[in-house]
Design a protein that fits this description.
By secondary structure, the chain is of the alpha+beta class. The chain has 10 helices and 6 strands; from the N terminus they run αβααββαααβαββααα. Bound molecules: heme C (6 copies).
């Protein structure tokens, strides 16, 4: 925490940017763009080269969507009705001048459905959640996603605190702390002589928004879901998509695609 608070001292206040600037997430006209069949990026580095970056050099998924480079589906069923986009900004004010945060529902409800956050992460009332940076770093509130799957707090001060401009020296030393969102799943695998399963968010979110999986198919917490091969063979869990049609299915040739972690 000490090193992070020091960062506050080295930031400079810039003009008061309008919080709603550049916020509209315009959609690509081609609903198939970016879906299965797009280039199968083998490494995160290759994907990161193809997509835009934010000021800190991190991959900017919002810009990729705005630029029409990605158009992930909101639900597994392509016929499902669209997402509810909510043009509601909620000001979050820690009462330190220059550190105001404006939470944009509009940008978040592109990726997430209401039940992705309410009530599991935030009570649905302005001011009802005692958010602090410490809790964010501990993985609570904004930190549930920012630092695990979305851009990390360390690397994006000014993306949340719009009036903070991080000095170039900080940029040079601390930029590019990429968030890949890789999760090792091993409730049953190594106990059953299989390498652990590695789930990669960066591969999946090119094709699907968070709402396709959370919270309907998977609770949004590492280790919270009890997945088994029996469930997969019954078409549940990963096999909601890994059915041989939407994505590769469960077969002898594919065991190691999912079971790619460490283990026996
Ligand atoms: C994902 C969004 C996000 C990012 C990124 C972020 N913050 Fe915050 N920050 C918040 C929120 C939300 C609050 C609480 C606002 C409130 O009081 O309601 C906050 C509060 C603060 C506070 C007030 C005291 C405290 O600890 O809560 C400071 C200081 C602060 N942030 C500094 C920083 C610095 C420095 C960075 C970059 C290293 C940073 N923040 C990055 C969202 C963010
Ligand atoms: C990424 C997380 C996230 C998602 C998704 C989300 N919200 Fe929120 N919502 C928040 C946060 C953060 C607040 C502010 C809480 C605070 O001030 O403590 C909030 C506050 C609210 C409030 C209270 C506003 C007020 O002035 O009291 C309402 C109403 C609300 N959300 C409705 C929705 C609806 C409807 C959806 C789906 C269309 C939705 N939210 C999706 C995070 C989210
Ligand atoms: C449930 C997951 C989740 C939570 C919780 C969440 N975010 Fe985000 N947020 C995202 C995703 C996904 C993006 C898209 C960018 C990315 O993935 O790097 C995003 C983008 C953003 C952006 C850039 C787009 C914009 O609106 O300008 C800001 C700023 C931001 N979040 C602030 C916050 C703050 C502040 C909080 C807490 C009050 C918060 N987020 C909580 C998932 C989340
Ligand atoms: C294809 C399905 C899928 C998509 C799409 C998806 N997730 Fe996940 N997510 C998972 C799985 C699987 C886990 C691991 C659950 C477990 O370990 O039980 C997970 C876990 C998480 C966690 C917990 C991380 C932790 O360290 O505890 C967060 C936060 C999360 N997802 C956020 C997101 C956000 C934000 C998006 C959209 C940008 C997203 N997910 C898109 C399947 C998905
Ligand atoms: C689409 C991804 C996927 C594929 C393909 C896959 N698995 Fe799994 N498998 C999982 C997940 C997820 C789990 C649960 C992970 C955990 O928490 O340990 C699992 C668990 C297991 C387990 C633990 C015991 C049990 O019954 O759940 C065994 C054994 C196993 N898999 C064997 C295999 C074999 C053999 C193959 C190839 C025929 C295979 N798996 C293919 C995703 C996959
Ligand atoms: C919402 C649909 C969906 C769900 C649910 C889903 N996947 Fe996927 N998965 C895909 C798609 C589509 C791809 C192809 C992505 C690409 O390579 O561009 C993919 C790719 C993968 C790959 C990459 C294979 C490679 O060649 O690199 C692995 C591994 C994988 N999924 C594992 C899992 C596991 C494990 C789960 C469950 C925990 C899961 N997936 C759940 C849709 C899904």
């Amino acid at each position: 925490m000490t090193a992070r608070l020091c960062a506050v001292v080295t930031v400079a206040l810039v003009g008061c940017a309008s919080p709603s600037e550049d916020r509209d997430v315009s959609r690509s006209a081609d609903p198939n763009e970016g879906r299965v069949g797009g280039p199968p990026y083998k490494s995160y580095e290759a994907l990161a080269q193809a997509l835009p970056k934010d000021a800190m050099g991190n991959l900017d998924w919002d810009a990729a969507v705005r630029d029409g480079l990605l158009d992930p589906l909101p639900a597994i069923d392509p016929g499902a009705s669209g997402m509810l986009s909510l043009p509601l900004d909620v000001p979050l004010d820690p009462h330190i001048p220059g550190l105001e945060v404006v939470f944009s529902h509009e940008t978040h409800t592109y990726w997430l459905s209401c039940d992705g956050c309410h009530p599991s992460i935030f009570a649905m009332q302005a001011g009802a959640n005692p958010i602090t940076m410490e809790k964010i770093y501990q993985g609570e509130y904004c930190g549930r996603c920012h630092g695990t799957v979305a851009f990390a707090a360390d690397t994006g001060c000014s993306r949340c605190h719009e009036r903070l401009a991080v000095k170039a020296v900080l940029l040079a030393t601390e930029a590019t702390d990429e968030v890949l969102g890789d999760i090792v799943m091993d409730r049953h695998s190594s106990a059953n002589y299989q390498p652990a399963v590695v789930f990669r968010h960066w591969k999946h979110r090119r094709h699907f928004r968070c709402s396709a999986c959370h919270p309907g198919v998977f609770e949004m917490r590492a280790g919270a879901n009890d997945n088994t091969m029996d469930a997969l063979l019954a078409g549940e869990s990963c096999a909601r998509c890994h059915d041989g049609l939407r994505a590769f299915g469960v077969a002898l040739e594919t065991c190691s695609d999912c079971h790619s972690g460490e283990g026996p």
